Input
Amino acid sequence: MNFPGLLTLRRLAQRIDLKATRCVVCGTLCHEGPLCPECRQELKPRTGGYCPRCGRHFGEDDDTPHLCASCRSIPPPWNALGFHGAHEGLLRELVLTFKFRQGLHLTALLRDMTEQAFSRMDAPQPELIVPVPLHRRRLVWRGYNQSLELSRGITKRHHIPLSTKALLRTRNTIPQTQLEAEERRKNIRGAFKADEEVQGKSVLLVDDVLTTGATLEECAKTLHRAGASAVAVLVLSVAEK
Output
């Protein structure tokens, strides 16, 4: 039996489209997942045309990834790199919002993008996940470690142990964003300490963005000195060198 009130509710539901959600990025009504078609297109992952060690982009997206000349001659201190895309456009804005503007509402989306990048990596499954740590003063000021938040999704989906004690920042350095490449390396040198927990284990080092690589290089070297058998790096975005 149909009642006038029920018919009115059905018509109203059809008009306002109760099955639709809001895009977490731009707020547009969408029907498939957390992103509208436009944002999904702009945030599609980079799946080819890059160096699998440093993330440097070249060629087209459908070109097979291969080592660049720099990584052939002087490879970085990690054996594999996973990332979602270039640190530009909408992805860059999301990373900056998440990191500097209390953008925790983006956590689920960015975790999913990080996990997908991890699934595309050409590397053995790690035995331990280690987020790049913040100094305790920076952590108190920001309220959360963005690298740790990204790491949680991989731990949950792939059941890989995560450690916040395996790598510690022992010195509160000047923010890297304020420095040039060579200054960044000097600034971050000796700023980390690794625990014996990493000895003999393959480690996945997680951060939000790879810019000059100074921080990740120092972290990877510190993990190797502590006895890590291998280090792979996973980030959301890679900046142009």
Observations:
- The mean pLDDT is 90.
- DSSP finds nine helices and eleven strands in the chain.
- The CA atoms of residues 165 and 192 lie 11 Å apart.
